[in-house]
Every structure is written in structure tokens, then in C-alpha cells.
Amino acid sequence: MTRLLLTAAVTLLAAGAAQADPADGLWKTKPDDNGHFGYIQMAPCGEKLCGTLVKSFDKDGKPMKSDNIGKQIVWDMVPEGDGRYDKGKVWAPDRDQTYSAHMVLAGDSLTVAGCILGGLICRNGGAWTRVK
Hints:
The protein is mainly beta.
């Protein structure tokens, strides 16, 4: 019985690891309008992908305090396959603006972009890089 339970547990763990989203992990954003950048922890949120600001840096690359640490920056990104994500939202703290957004993953680069007002005003968040 113990052997059966152990086998079942290992099988479940292996299945969960095999289903990990390739964009999961820690990402360094491009500098914002103030020159600040952050680390975003991307992780599943149900069937979608979300990202939370876990660390902030000033324009000189020194860690800084921020009221935004712990806040969701990316949410509801739907994996579309081939490294594409769509139908999500991205909040830009430097402009306090939420954009309808999409992302494209290519290796250790995650390009994030979004629009407001039905696509009239768009912002390219640039390519984020994976933190190893």
C-alpha cells in the first residue's frame, strides 16, 4: 500500500512539473518613465498567468522601497501557444494606468505590450529578461 501511494505521489508531482508554463519565473522589467525597474514573479493563476512585483530598483540599480511591492502587475494572461499570451491586463505603476495586454515569450525574453481606449493609445513595455 505504501509503495502504491508513493508511486501515485511521484506521478502527480511529475505531471505538475511537466505542465509548468514556460513563462513561470522571475523577470526583470525594462526601466519605466522614472528609470526604475522591478522583478516580476510570474506564476499560474488558475488556467491563466499572473505576475506580482517582488522587488524594486532605482535608476542606479539599487534596491528601493516601493508601496507597489506585492501588487499584481500582470493578470489574466491566457496562454495561446507558441509563446504567445493574450487577453490579459498589465498595470504600469509609473503612469497608474491599466492596459489590455499581450505577451510574447522567446527564450529568456518576454515582450510585454498593451493598449487603452480600444487600441488608440498603446505602450510597449519592452522585453523583460529572465532573472536566473
